[in-house]
């Protein structure tokens, strides 16, 4: 098979996507720019896109002439997540194994990115959610801007922050990761920089200039790449209403052992703190799937003590149980209520937190009882993994 470094973009697309045009490849000297190209779907990752990205990343790592990767989205989003509607539909029509295969490939891609030997610069223009975080936050450079909107909204869908999110959320300052992962709170570019999810902030009108400079790069030296991005960067101030200015409250509440205790702590704060953040957090937690909240909290807490590979392996077990509907079918109900019927009135089962027992939560971390199922086997790679370093 031809290398992505050869030929024009059309050839690359035909090699690496069963749906032509969903991932565009631009070659400029030693730089390859991967463009997520489903703008009408906010660049939600289809199965073809995930497969194509994985093949590109794998091939470029072996290609000596390729020294830098840029990842960006077409239109008003970087990437709004994985195409979970496609996954849910396929499971309803066929088998849970389609969903398992989708996440298997996606998590492998996340791992390759997290351990990549060459620098990756993700230009986070617009929406960055779920799977979009998976193809960017694990990379070395994450450039946020004035219109960036980041969120991990999975608990509202009956899912949990996956794509290795238990690794990077658990490494944010204090218990900010629990806050972001459980409530689905939206962060802007300044907040992403402040908490360490972004490495740089570049004003929107300077992003094209940054991209043009990066396309002229002929090195894989991360210090040289960082120096180029620094030339266009600013240090924005977070808004006064930002959760980053409420870290004392967040740490006090989201450090609690259980979801019930977190909600109780927030409710105790509410009367004495005239703060929309506390009210919004309570509302989000009350609306989310109780099962999702409990497995998400357990996942993030486990992630604190695990490598990125260990997090992805555990999350793969969890997502397979979700796809199978072993202990709850909240994922399918969430997709129905939010994405299909759009009545935004999911009927969670079980409907309350006290009905989601610790024993059931633990089962999500166990192997799937199916002779055809296998754990996520990740390749042995050199130690190029990066930790999220908080900028506080």
From TrEMBL:
An example of a Gene Ontology BP annotation on this entry?
Answer: L-valine catabolic process
Molecular function terms from GO: 3-hydroxyisobutyryl-CoA hydrolase activity
Q: In which pathway does it act?
A: Amino-acid degradation; L-valine degradation
Pfam families registered for this protein in UniProt:
ECH_2
Q: Which domain of life is it from?
A: Eukaryota
Pinpoint the Enoyl-CoA hydratase/isomerase domain residues: 32-365
Sorted keywords for this record are: Hydrolase
In short, the EC number is 3.1.2.4
- Keyword hit for Hydrolase: yes
NCBIfam families on file: PRK05617.1
Q: What is this protein called?
A: 3-hydroxyisobutyryl-CoA hydrolase
Species, as recorded: Triticum aestivum
